[in-house]
Amino acid sequence: MATILIVEDDIDTNEAICEYLQEAGHTTIPALDGDEAITLFAAQKIDLVVLDIMLPTVTGLVVLNSIRKASQVPVLMLTALEDEYTQVTSFDSQVDDYMTKPFSMVILGKRIAALLRRSSPQAPVNVWTHGDLTVNFAGYSAHDSTGELEVTAKEIDLLKLLVEHQGLVLSRSQILDNLWGDNAEVLDRLVDTYIKNLRKKLHLDCIKTVKGIGYKLEVDP
Predict the structure, then answer these.
(1) HSE on the CB side for 64, CA within 13 Å?
(2) CB 216 within 8 A of CB 161
(3) What values do phi and psi take at 115, rounded to 5?
(4) What is the pLDDT of residues 151-206, one digit of tens each?
(5) Which of 41, 65, 88, 127 is deepest in the core (most CB within 10 A)?
(6) Helix (H) or strand (E) segment spanning residue 171
């Protein structure tokens, strides 16, 4: 079970989340403002953070940026702000999931379980299959029932990134940073072109567009 930092300034909501997660077997650490959250995160071994945006002292986005300077621990944003700009900004700042209030405690628990499962250490993915498609990431090749498929090395790298983060939304900025580097002079829309090519060349219907944010790979169990 995980140690989860709950950053929520409403005491009743914070206590309710802590109680629910404790019943599921987790250890919870409450924080009621942004500065306290930063201090607790630095002092404790935290496995996941549930983070509000509108907080006393400093905002949740400031807390998120502080966390990301030191760790890639999963962060779930839980906030009343549901506008597209705030969601895009959160994903660009490397939040892992985003839920809006009012929320279902059961769904929150499921989202947390999924994030913890995906963040567990896993062996590198060298070969991926989907239907009759087989992609060899190490050999930069792909084939299906018709034979070898023409695909570029960068398209293979993009697909591997999506596979390794299956179920999680990756913003265009995150994809660019991973595949082209922080200082690469490329446009966000280049990612759209590569996604289009992957869908067409490999006949993939499992790469989903998340409007205004980016893409995720979603495969039925």
Answers:
(1) 24
(2) no
(3) -65, -40
(4) 999 999 999 999 988 877 888 888 888 888 755 566 768 899 999 999 999 999 99
(5) 41
(6) strand 170-171
